[in-house]
Each structure stands twice: as structure tokens, then as C-alpha cells.
Design goal:
Elements (H helix, E strand, L loop, with lengths): L2 H17 L1 E5 L3 H13 L3 E5 L24 H12 L4 E5 L6 H7 L4 E4 L4 H14 L3 E7 L12 E7 L7
Parallel strand pairs: 1-2, 1-4, 2-3, 4-5
Antiparallel strand pairs: 5-6
Helix pairs in contact: 2-3
Length: about 170
């Protein structure tokens, strides 16, 4: 299954991916893409943190979302999609805000964190975990402002490494 990327990473590199525990905080448009890509790469454990449910307005941006998913937890959708992409993956759904004690307990057990949530509170909490527990992270996101009359403004994207001394705030 992993032949092509093992040619690049080597068998040991692929085995290392299978032992990683990676968190994705925020399972919207960018987060849902990350979940599938990480599953397809062969990551072993995936911690999925988001307290929201799927609604009709965000369904088109969620990878593999179906009409019947409206009202379901984004964590359940992400776990289902990760398992479809890689039946060997071990997803852990945490349907809470990242500030919740259970979510923070799971986060500090990870090897890497992807921050795809757009709240200042989520950024602050992930920054705190990075600095206190020395767990590296990557912040990713897209902002597309739309005026009340429907005019699209300047599109912003963010991809930045977060590690002690270098936060995302």
C-alpha cells in the first residue's frame, strides 16, 4: 500500500509515520483535507478535535461530506473519512473545543499538531501546548472575506510552523 512513498521515505520512514500520533484541531475545509492526507500517508493515530456539527453552508467545503451528514459531528465525519482512506488508522474523535480538558489531555500526547481552527482561543491554547510540552505544530488556514453585497475581498492564506519561541499569534 505504501510502496511509492516508501521509495522516497524508506521502509523506516514509513514505519515512523505509522507510529506518529498527530492532532488536527479544526475539521472544516482545510482540516478535513489534512485528515484525509494524513490518513493516506499512513499516520498511525489521528486525534480529531472540533466541537461543531456539519451544516448545509459548510458541507461543500468538507471532504467527503454527504447530504445525510448535516447535523452530525465533524469529528465523526473526519473519523469516517480517515478510515475510508486508511483502514489501519486509529482515529480518536474529541467532539469538544480545544480548550476543554479532555481535548487538552489528548493534545499533549501527540507528536505533532495541525491547527486549522480560526478562533483566537484555539490559537492561544495550541501555542500554550507547543511551548509548555515542546510539541511542534503547523498552523494552516484560508480566509475569504465576502462583503454584504457579495463582493469577494482579498484572500488570505496561512501556513506557519509553531514551535517554542515562534507562536502563531
Amino acid at each position: 500500500m505504501w510502496d511509492r512513498q516508501a521509495r522516497l521515505l524508506g521502509d523506516r520512514g514509513q514505519e515512523s509515520l505509522s507510529r506518529l500520533r498527530i492532532a488536527v484541531v479544526g475539521l472544516g475545509g482545510v482540516g478535513s483535507i489534512l485528515v484525509e492526507e494524513l490518513a493516506r500517508l499512513g499516520v498511525g493515530d489521528l486525534v480529531l478535535i472540533d466541537n461543531e456539527t456539519v451544516d448545509a453552508t459548510n458541507r461543500p467545503r468538507l471532504l467527503a461530506a454527504e447530504r445525510g451528514d448535516i447535523g452530525k459531528l465533524k469529528t465523526d465525519l473526519a473519523a469516517r473519512n480517515a478510515t475510508r482512506a486508511n483502514p489501519q488508522i486509529r482515529p480518536a474523535a474529541v467532539p469538544q473545543r480545544v480548550e476543554a480538558p479532555e481535548a487538552l489531555r489528548e493534545l499533549v500526547r501527540c507528536d505533532w499538531i495541525f491547527l486549522a481552527a480560526d478562533s483566537h482561543s484555539a490559537r492561544h491554547r495550541v501555542d500554550a501546548v507547543v511551548h509548555e510540552f515542546l510539541i511542534p505544530a503547523t498552523q494552516v488556514g484560508v480566509k475569504i472575506p465576502v462583503s454584504p453585497n457579495g463582493e469577494v475581498g482579498q484572500i488570505h492564506t496561512a501556513t506557519r510552523l509553531v514551535f517554542p519561541g515562534v507562536g502563531c499569534m
